[in-house]
What does this fold into?
Amino acid sequence: MIHLVDDDEAVTNSCCFLLESLGYPVQCWNQSERFLREAPLGETGIALLDMRMPGMDGHCLFQAMREQSSTLAVIFLTGHGDIPMAVEEIQSGAVDFLQKPVALNALQEAISKGYEHSLRLVKMHQLKQRYRQLTAKEREVARYVASGRMNKDIAAQMNIALRTVEVHRSRVMEKMEAKTMAELIMQMNTIHLSTHGLPGR
It folds into this structure.
């Protein structure tokens, strides 16, 4: 789903017509606050945000979406922007910053990138959700496993029985839905890079 957020109804109506003619499902929002309150922020999709809006502007809306761990990819589509503004939003995680009137091919390219980005965000969110299900001991075992430690070394390091390590390891694999040890290591490395190694985030 593409969510169009712009206080100008004429703009959202014309843009909606264009996007729907290209086969995209679209929902229009003329108030940032209502979008933030009612939109499915945890799904795969795109938010096309105007920058200048009354009340909560595009910049503040994007910030609020990040605070709520939104998995919607953000593309700014605005008639009021400059290079420093675009750089700031891109560095904050926006997929693109497009000036109105936008060329159709540039918009389609941004939307394509946006869906790919949103899918990655959804997968990361699901991975973190699974990680949060681990107990403190299971997280510790998982980190040792990801660093290449053998079960007997983990048991000695944690001062627990070898069998206990094996049980924790089995539960980690199950909760993380990792089919192989290589997959678990990749998951743990991804989480570490994403959260700087802070458990529970």
Summary: Confidence is low (pLDDT under 50) at residues 197-201. The beta strands are 2-5, 26-29, 46-49, 73-78, 96-99. Residues 87 and 114 are 17 Å apart (CA to CA). The radius of gyration is 21 Å.
